[in-house]
Amino acid sequence: MGQDTIRLTTAQAIIRYLNAQFIETDGVRQRLCGGGFGIFGHGNVTCLGEALYDHRDTLPLYRGQNEQSMGFAAAAYAKYHLRRRFMFCTASAGPGTANLLTAAALAHANRLPMLMLCGDTFLTRLPDPVLQQLEHFNNPALGLNDAFQAVSRYWDRITHPAQVIQTLPAAIATMLDPADCGPAFLALPQDVQGWAYDYPTSFFEEKTHRIRRISPDTDEIADAVATLKAAQRPVIIAGGGVQYSGAVAALTAFAETHQIPVIETIAGRANMLNDHALNIGPVGVTGSDSANAVAEAADVILSVGSRLQDFTTGSWTAFAQDARIISLNAARHDAGKHQSLPVVGDARLGLEQIGAGMDGYTAPATWTNFAQDQRKVWDAYVSENTRPGNGPNSYPKAIGAVNALCGTRDRVVAAAGGLPAEVTANWRTLDIGTVDVEFGFSCMGYEIAGGWGARIAQSESEPDADTIVFCGDGSYLLMNSDIYSSVLSQKKLIILVLDNGGFAVINKLQNNTGNESFNNLLADAPTIPDPFAVDFVAHAASMGAHAVRADTPDQLAEAFKAAKAADKTSVIVMNVDAYDGWTTQGHTWWEVGTPHVTDNPKVRAAHLEVEASRAKQRKGSDAHPGRDQEGKFWSSGRRYGPVPRSFGAA
């Protein structure tokens, strides 16, 4: 007997296959694809739209306002689900698809799964050139969609209906792979979408996926154990991969058993509760004095699930140059950075296996006490930094007011500008996995769109919790239309719009490198003769949201209470100072390009200061240790206090 088949179009086969995919996590089985975001055009409405209509109950399609924001929402949805579920985005050929480029880059940088089903020009070329087609005179096969090869983990152009039998499993395998996870892009020529093929019915049988856990190599585990057991000042860097692996409990148990301080990356915020005794705070450029003091004093650093980007490493000045780094990571590329001792494998399995070989090792009490004392000092700073009435309206004051009133399972979303640093430094984690600070791509516009995607995910399992978005005026003006999306779809958000009159954090960088304020704040833009403030309250209200202005942190707190009680999206607007009120402590050095030749003495002085700090930069060698002749730890020109004799100080 021949194989049973069913005749379907390419588009119908893609959607039917997605509808049949499930995932099982800790014994719970649910649909792998949570649905999608779509804006229809001539490149996807007639064929893919027809196929989606027949599955609208099981694969809900959310109508987007902008393709870029649809991609941000899909990324935030995947992040909420710890990369175990994904959404698709469908866009028309031409500018609709082009708008997804930024979102694909964000998902790629953050290692997040997202499936893009995008229209393409006709494979036959019979009607060429078609509306919105880019023509390359010497390469007719090259088109706009080829640009996505740089920002996709998996890329394919479907040129025949049978191709999806190979392509779809490969795309899903990529999106679910802990090491290769990222966006998948399928270019769908308009004619091929409607072509039919006799597919084997077995291709559409329900399939249950499980996330693969790779056990680390025994020799790499042995090397890591030997290095850690010899450590006098060990520290753990907890990255986002801890949560993706489901390794939070394993990390906590490992740290507690061996009394090793833990410091968190931006992606790893909310790996531990704020009040855990071994949580020493966030590390790096947007970190805390406590974590950075411990990072620079450490002789062995166990990095778990971090890609060690420059904001974590202080452009590789955050650690002593002779410190040993052990990098436990599912991705080989990340595990070997800067001559780290690699442990390639799953974070949970790796921690369990390293722990099994530690033979009762505990870090010296003087070291752990030192770390905890540093954290107490930092906690006191944050308390004062976020206290209402302590200085002008600022990001920290707004963060503190919200933090004091939010629920333990409320989810916080922030992205570009000054807010990622301020949230990372000042937010006090109330529950595991409740902070989404997008800083892999540091992408303006993610905030509200990402909040919408996070809320869609959150409402599936935690409908009584809230999604709280911190957004600056610059990001709001860049992308705000998903306020309307959230109201239309009844996915409530609480949005804090903190208006400092322009791009204030880049103005601060401009000033800190000796430059005059120029073209960042509205008041300093030479082509704006008469600057004025946007009425964000009226604008948000026009999209159906509750919207109010708060003039003080106390008023913001009252407005936040009302927003918690409301049944739809609320927007709270507060002006904050562009120059004063920033978190001034906790920053490591960060490398930025500065002019080597200038007539401006302030710029020249700033350049020399930047270059003087370069001596701290780790180059992967066993150079001089990270302390000065007085035996004091340093960071960004400040010292963290005398080194106890047991730490090996001269």
What does this entry show, briefly?
It is built from 24 helices and 25 strands. It has 650 residues and is an alpha/beta fold.
Commentary on this structure:
The protein is 35% helix and 18% strand. It is of the alpha/beta class and 650 residues long. It folds into four domains: 5-209, Rossmann fold; 218-379, Rossmann fold (3-Layer(aba) Sandwich); 386-575, Thiamin diphosphate (ThDP)-binding fold, Pyr/PP domains (Rossmann fold); 601-618 and 629-645, no CATH class. A six-stranded parallel beta sheet has the order 5-4-6-7-9-8, with helices on both faces. A six-stranded parallel beta sheet has the order 14-13-12-15-16-17. Strand 24 (632-635) and strand 25 (638-642) form a beta hairpin. Helix 16 (395-405) packs across helix 17. The longest helix has 21 residues, at 365-385. The protein is globular. The protein starts with a strand and ends in an 8-residue tail after the last strand.
